[in-house]
Design goal:
Layout: H1 2-16, H2 21-32, E1 36-40, E2 45-49, H3 56-66, E3 77-85, E4 88-96, H4 106-144, H5 150-159, E5 168-175, H6 180-190, E6 195-198, E7 203-209, H7 216-231, E8 235-243, H8 249-265, H9 277-288, H10 290-299, H11 302-311, H12 315-324, H13 329-336, H14 340-354, H15 361-377
Antiparallel strand pairs: 1-2, 1-4, 3-4, 5-7, 5-8, 6-7
Length: about 375
């Protein structure tokens, strides 16, 4: 009994002092008289003593045990103790066949190691909860307080391993999955130093700090777009421009939210180029000066949008097709399944209502920009 208590105290001390489960496995191995492995899939932990012990077959076995799936016993497994939290198995402590005979009390020592492993899980999850609260607090303040001191933002993010001193891109995702922790982990794993958090409104927000050297704006934005593409199977993802000044990160969050709202609610085919060129410029303007984008919309295509709503016509669709087909009347007619004369009539109506002639290059440019402005503010227009 004295020996058991002594080993138990040493294992708990190893966990609380930060030596980790490798030290616990070493203590259990010495006491149990054979190689011992500790596997906790939740923490992605798989350690053994001796360190060169082959625990490959145990990894799959431990995962199956945690998921309550049937699994064949690994050949060298002599005994095991489950690591349990409530009614759930979250890992195992395994005694493997070795050159000598196991201790008669081996099962007791395995159980003590399982208790120590559960303590390690509790400590790590407590740390993770504190970090989650800190991440969530910073992101929430960036969303709601544009007056935050940028030096304080950089300092707080730096304590969480996220270097914002050279700028960042903001990612905002609205999830359709029930695995928000997986999405957060994917972001953290894919982008060095990323700070991501699942918020209460079923959205994940992430600060993606600058990567690269002088080409940081391009490289960071490219990495953010690749990450957004990967996350699309979990929901809709909006990405901001690159913002070099930490003082502008609140605006970057607004921009990412705007992109997300447009992608969620617009039925226009703009997803492919929404992150580039004119669209990106308009999003940046909208995030800081929304009245300017709204004013440009009103001065260009707003009359034909309202006309379509009132009379169930398709002047907007016809104008878009005309511009996309490089002003070719026949190609436009084929695209919208209408007669060439119908296209001509509708373009005349566009000219009458807006005062801008789709046949004139300067007016055509204003109409094209007005359509883009319409697509990004459409989700916020009154119905």
């Amino acid at each position: 009994m004295t020996r058991l208590r002594e080993i138990h105290l040493q294992m708990v001390d190893a966990v609380l002092s930060g030596e980790g489960l490798g030290r616990v496995a070493q203590l259990a191995s010495g006491a149990a008289g054979g190689p011992v492995a500790i596997l906790v899939p939740r923490l992605a932990v798989a350690v053994a003593h001796p360190e060169d012990a082959d625990i490959g077959p145990l990894r799959r076995y431990a995962t199956d045990r945690v998921k309550d799936r049937p699994s064949p016993l690994p050949e060298r497994l002599v005994a095991e103790a489950p690591i349990t939290s409530g009614d759930d198995v979250i890992g195992i402590v395994a005694l493997l066949a070795g050159p000598g005979e196991p201790s008669p009390d081996a099962a007791e020592f395995l159980h003590l190691a399982a208790v120590a492993a559960l303590t390690e899980v509790a400590v790590e999850e407590a740390k993770e909860e504190v970090e989650q609260n800190l991440r969530g607090s910073l992101l929430e303040e960036l969303r709601s307080r544009p007056d935050l001191d940028p030096r304080e933002v950089v300092r707080r993010a730096g304590r969480l391993g996220c270097d914002l001193s050279r700028g960042a891109v903001i990612l905002c995702a609205e999830l359709t999955t029930d695995r928000p922790r997986h999405v957060v982990a994917t972001i953290a794993g894919e982008h060095p130093g990323a700070l991501a958090q699942h918020m209460d409104d079923q959205r994940v927000y992430a600060l993606l700090p600058a990567i690269g050297g002088d080409d940081a704006p391009e490289r960071t934005l490219d990495a953010a777009r690749r990450l957004a593409t990967r996350l699309q199977r979990h929901g809709t993802v909006g990405v901001s421009s690159f913002y070099a000044d930490p003082a502008d990160l609140s605006r970057a969050i607004q921009e990412a939210e705007l992109v997300l709202d447009v992608l969620r609610q617009s039925d226009a085919p703009i997803a492919e180029d929404i992150g580039t060129g004119t669209y990106r410029l308009l999003f940046r303007v909208l995030a800081s000066h929304p009245e300017e984008v709204r004013s440009f919309y009103e001065d260009t295509v707003a009359p034909i949008v309202r006309y379509d709503d009132q009379y169930r016509t398709d002047l907007v669709g016809t104008l878009e097709a005309y511009l996309e087909q490089n002003c070719n009347m026949n190609a436009t007619a084929a695209t919208i399944y209408a007669h060439r004369h119908t296209v001509a009539y509708r373009l005349d109506r566009v000219k009458e209502l807006t005062g801008l002639d789709p046949m004139q290059s300067e007016d055509r440019e204003r109409l094209g920009l007005g359509l883009k402005a319409y697509r990004i503010i459409a989700p916020r227009l009154p119905r």
